[in-house]
Specification:
Elements: E1 4-7, H1 13-26, H2 37-45, E2 52-58, E3 61-73, E4 78-88, H3 97-111, E5 116-119, H4 126-134, H5 150-157
Parallel strand pairs: 4-5
Antiparallel strand pairs: 1-2, 2-3, 3-4
Length: 160
């Protein structure tokens, strides 16, 4: 299967939004998605862009997307690349599309002199975890992710 990778264009936001919703269904949190096409347009195509999206095409048809952004590590003093989402349409799974996409993202990370390339996986997603480990990714068990949003974010912002 010949896969072509390219940067997202404005006319891809409908496909990206659809994939985000499909991914949320598979990850068992479909009702939590708030993103709209307008949000994607602003985040992807403003200067500077907040996030980047790679599109995978087979026969000039979009079949997968990967959303990523740059990070920085104070411990390494170098940039990193964080993969926020990667989704391959069901009919194109098992053909190496996701693996090739990770390879393309790793090449971007190296070209941008990133010291690391990282992403999150849900604890129960054994298939994804096994796949990532087969690529040489290390699971970081000593870290916990913390998040504040909405009221908690307002509460912390009020601290003076």
């Amino acid at each position: 299967m010949q896969v072509v990778f390219r940067n997202a264009q404005k006319n891809d936001v409908g496909f990206i939004e659809r994939c985000i919703h499909l991914l949320a269904e598979e990850e068992k949190f479909p009702g939590q998605i708030e993103v709209r096409q307008e949000d994607l347009l602003t985040s992807l195509f403003s200067e500077p862009a907040a996030v980047y999206v790679m599109i995978a095409e087979v026969d000039q048809t979009a079949v997968a997307f990967a959303m990523y952004y740059c990070t920085f590590s104070s411990t390494t003093g170098k940039k990193g690349l964080h993969l926020d989402d990667l989704y391959v349409l069901q009919d194109y799974r098992g053909h190496g599309v996701g693996k090739k996409m990770l390879g393309a993202l790793a090449r971007i990370a190296l070209k941008q002199h990133c010291k690391r390339f990282e992403w999150w996986a849900l604890r129960w997603n054994d298939n994804a975890i096994s796949f990532y480990k087969s690529l040489g990714a290390q699971q970081l068990d000593d870290l916990k992710i913390f998040r504040v949003q909405e009221q908690a974010l307002q509460h912390i912002a009020a601290i003076k």
